[in-house]
Amino acid sequence: MTATLFPARPTPVIPVQGAAGFPVGRIFCVGRNYADHAAEMGHEVDREAPFYFTKSAHAVLLSGQDMPYPPRTADLHHEMELVVAIGATAVNIAEEDAMNVVFGYGSGLDMTRRDLQAASKAKRRPWDTGKDFDNAAIIAPLTPKVDNADIGHLTIKLEVNAQVRQEAKLSDMVWSIAEVIADLSTLYTLDPGDLIMTGTPAGVGPVVKGDVLRGTIGDFAPLETTII
Fold this sequence. Notes:
Layout: E1 13-16, E2 19-23, E3 27-31, H1 35-40, E4 51-55, E5 60-62, E6 76-78, E7 80-86, E8 102-110, E9 112-113, H2 114-122, H3 128-131, E10 137-139, E11 143-144, E12 155-160, E13 163-169, H4 177-184, E14 195-197, E15 205-206, E16 212-217, E17 223-226
Parallel strand pairs: 3-14, 5-10
Antiparallel strand pairs: 1-2, 3-4, 6-9, 6-15, 7-8, 7-14, 8-10, 8-11, 12-13, 12-16, 16-17
């Protein structure tokens, strides 16, 4: 083994209900995958192809842990999302086969420094500082997939201080899970450990210190965090 100058950062591991932990590889995020959210942000959605941005695995914050309010922002937003955990390698996979590489599902929050994202958009610069920062990917324990049954009937919901902020059906997604996996696998080799955050419905908005966030999707493990 090659000697290193300092210890490597540990790989984030997400708990899995009834199984060993899930070591995180990469985090892919789907943009504007709910038409109502796109509309509230001033955009229209077409069906040509989804688009993506990424978060570092080291942006993971486990559900149940507090989220420190991040620096250099005055407009931190919540975005509640279905997380799809990949359990097998996929390259150019057909849509009809895409669900076979899904390990399981979870609830996630794509936290966003909205003011920094808006400034980047205005200058046609990358969104990294608005999307990829410490604790920006809050993930609940994963639930292993039992079969390839459709989960579109499940409700995705986020409450802030016990008040509902976001609520929709997973079937409201513009691009389905299988469509996203098939398309993403033409751009990257998907490997076990990769996560896909599949987009957020309408209702995104700011949070401040002291806010308590609780997200649910069906009977998957709930997501909980407090902004400190």
